Amino acid sequence: MADSRDSAPKMHEHQIDVSEQDVLRLISTQFPQWTGEPVARIPSYGTTNAMFTLGADKVVRLPFIPGDGAGVAVETALLERVSGELPVAIPEVIATGRADECYPFTWNVLGWVPGEMPVPEALADASGLIDDLIAVLVRLRELPTEGVRVAQRGGSLAPLADLVHETMRELDGEFDTEVLRALWDDALAAPGWQGDPVWVHSDLLPSNLLVDERGRLAGVLDWAAAGVGDPSCELLAAWNVFPDDARELFRARLEDRLQLDDAMWRRGRGWAVSQAVLALPYYRNTNAGMAEMATRALRALARESV
């Protein structure tokens, strides 16, 4: 590895350091046609990959935790299945790099997708973004599922039951955890998905969405958690992407377009609770962006009622 290292605290026990010098070396030895193009680290909320711009139109994405290099092949296959199928942009896999004597994982060069991360408080009119996101979800449900793995959040909430309850104790006094526990228990009690598995992104957080200057959806990033399963996990967006006054509009339009029922909403709210409850204590001191997103979601959820 290169000598120059980032000074940010590590998020994970076995996280390795990745620097601009590493990217320059990997590019020069494996993709010499891009040698000389400028490289710069992208400030990111990412928890498993370091991101660097390469020139004006490419992104280098390098895993920094053991085992995640294998996920590059999985995500590449998922991106290739979805490529050209959605009404918004997704990253294009331009090249795949290999591990070498200094960097231990497989890695990707992706096409740059322009846009900005949506901020709920800055969405003066979320109606267009709601329509755009629902159009993506509608199209995903239409895609063939044969041979596609189960998504990271494509199954039941039940395996997380005890962990979420235990972790929630760390948030007592900071949030209304009585409400959060009630929402979580309600989600666990909701009837399960009875339909066939469908395509889901399963990680629709603001950090994985891009909007244009009008606030319309421009791109959907990070397909590492995607696959097939229960589409309730897509409702993460309700409490993470949209402000309170747009959430009911999102629900109403989902009911109209995708036959959303009460049980799915309850399970989706459970996914939002579990994601935020588990993320905040873990990333509080190492990933300010993730901690901020989790805090915002927990505050929104604490204003809910069962």
UniProtKB/TrEMBL annotation:
InterPro entries tied to this protein: AGP_Transferase, Aminoglycoside_PTrfase, Kinase-like_dom_sf
Top-level taxon in the UniProt lineage: Bacteria
Every Aminoglycoside phosphotransferase domain range: 46-271
Protein's name in the database: Aminoglycoside phosphotransferase family protein
Species, as recorded: Gryllotalpicola daejeonensis
